[in-house]
Amino acid sequence: MSLLTVGTIAFDSIETPFGRAERVVGGAGVYIPLAASYFTDDLKIVSVVGGDFPPDEIDYMVSRGIDTEGLQVIEDGKTFTWHGKYKPNMTERETLDTQLNVLASFDPVLPESYKEVDYLMLGNMTPSLQMRVIDQLKKRPKLIALDTMNFWMDTAMDELKKVLQYVDVLTINDDEARQLSGKFSLVKAAASIHKMGPKYLVVKKGEHGALLFQNSNVFFAPALPLAEVFDPTGAGDTFAGGFIGYLASTEDLSFENMKRAVIYGSAMASFCVEKFSIARLKELNDDEITERMVNFVQLVNFDAKL
Amino acid sequence: MSLLTVGTIAFDSIETPFGRAERVVGGAGVYIPLAASYFTDDLKIVSVVGGDFPPDEIDYMVSRGIDTEGLQVIEDGKTFTWHGKYKPNMTERETLDTQLNVLASFDPVLPESYKEVDYLMLGNMTPSLQMRVIDQLKKRPKLIALDTMNFWMDTAMDELKKVLQYVDVLTINDDEARQLSGKFSLVKAAASIHKMGPKYLVVKKGEHGALLFQNSNVFFAPALPLAEVFDPTGAGDTFAGGFIGYLASTEDLSFENMKRAVIYGSAMASFCVEKFSIARLKELNDDEITERMVNFVQLVNFDAKL
């Protein structure tokens, strides 16, 4: 099944307590399809970069089965850059600098061959651009997933609520679920968000794992406790890529399969944080992913003896 | 198997976003044995209260199978009081007032019949008092569990490290595990803490669940997402009581059984937060506990199909 990702591509400059990286490749438009490429090979991307973006990196994406017809390269423009610094707890981070560059005038135009895609993953960006993508589709995908953040709740809540009506899966963190719904209890927040459109709510809690809600069904996926957490940047997008990539490859939207997808997403995210940028994702193989899935089974498996 | 709990008993005054309670019964010395009483009936307690402590509450503890010979009642003294206010996120809290009262001169004297106890749970208190309890034992218990907090790491680290040498299970939160070990990664923190004495480390993460470490074994127990979280006070102690109560009743210290104990602890904690003080624990029955264990199984159960 085809999977279209619409998301930003960036040069990230990152400072963590364990090191720093300068102008490394990042953004949802890279992490999501790359993570998904370990599950399915019918991948498409809509994004924008400047003339400063390395052709090698685009070639690499193509080598992973990612169709880049929808990737706009603005030769006389510069790629979006983000500079952030993590606090010692590695969960909070401070944005030191953002240069929108080519992103400022980004119009996510879908090539003709993208308009009947089966699965759609909308990375975090202006809700009106996410809506613009949906408006170009010729038929409704089997599944639309959307990632967003508190910034859009603060500045564009109406547009966000409009696009949410078309969305099947919403991925946000716990604070954002509370902000969007106005409810403290995540159980109540999920019920409230279901009414806005999304049938499924994935609450990403970083090192504390993720929760999947669908009506009265709840599933909890832990994050794997790791000896080395090097850089959390991109973990949420990598999670989303593993999640929707697994769904697109299995074509099964039952809650049981959604649970597996959440665990695959968590497994992919656990690799992402081990190195800067996409370094760990680039060197990954299927055996390592299976091995990590076994780790997840062991991590939560118990016999209640009831 | 006999289980001795040494812990403070308090009058708590609590403010949460959902309500307030004035001078309600609280403290590790109440929550721990009460939670454990749902698993085992050979319970003993060492603690101290003032003449203002309601005899009815002591009678209730006795009715739950708790031997109160070791409970010192200082007739002309006042019970320890704590006044705290939770922030809107319900995880951070501010202490508004503390009156040590009879706790200031507390000497945890063990009655003769307590000195050969099988299981020992040392609630959070001055490490030197925890050591004083261990010093009075005639034989080593099958298991010693200890709860502590950042305050003792800040003010009495040497005494804490001394008592830890005698401890099998340490229960602390994630920030405290990092502070005690000086390691950011909880995997590394656990390895470091094992070397201090405790063979098992339970990292309590409140609404994010709990982690159990034993050498290379790791187990994750989620917290149940609840529609109503009324008051988190006592949840950590209730967890500890369910955990060690289950172990004392099963007499099985395998990692597999420790996992079940962590889930039972989590189940008991999930009840605790539904009402102020011990109100929910008082009205609980075994069927409700079993039902909640089923909820935990459903919450994390998945078929990886590997």
Describe the protein in words.
Two copies of one chain form a homodimer. Chain A is an alpha/beta fold and 306 residues long. Chain A is 37% helix and 25% strand. The first copy, chain A, has eleven helices and 14 strands. Chain A has helices at residues 28-36, 55-63, 127-136, 150-155, 157-164, 174-181, 186-196, 235-250, 255-272, 279-282, 286-300; strands at residues 3-6, 10-16, 19-26, 43-50, 66-67, 71-74, 80-86, 93-99, 119-122, 143-147, 169-173, 200-204, 210-214, 217-221. The N and C termini of chain A lie far apart (41 Å). The model of chain A has no long low-confidence stretch (mean pLDDT 96). Chains A and B meet through helix 7, strand 14, helix 9 and helix 11 of A and helix 7, strand 14, helix 9 and helix 11 of B.
Could you give a quick summary of the protein structure above?
Two copies of one chain form a homodimer. The first copy, chain A, is α/β, with parallel strands linked by helices and 306 residues long. Helices cover 37% and strands 25% of the residues of chain A.
Class from secondary-structure proportions of chain A = alpha/beta
Count of strand segments of chain A: 14
- How do the helices and strands follow one another from N- to C-terminus of chain A? EEEHEHEEEEEHEHHEHHEEEHHHH
> Architecture of chain A, CATH level 2?
3-Layer(aba) Sandwich
Task: Specify the oligomeric state.
Answer: homodimer
| Name of the CATH superfamily of chain A | Ribokinase
Overall domain count of chain A: 1
CATH topology of chain A: UDP-N-acetylmuramoyl-L-alanine:D-glutamate ligase
Q: Which parts of chain A are unreliable, with pLDDT below 50 for 5 consecutive residues or more?
A: none
The biggest sheet of chain A amounts to: 10 strands, mixed
CATH class of chain A: Alpha Beta
- The outline of chain A comes out as globular
- Terminal CA distance of chain A: 41 Å
- The percentage helix of chain A is 25-40%
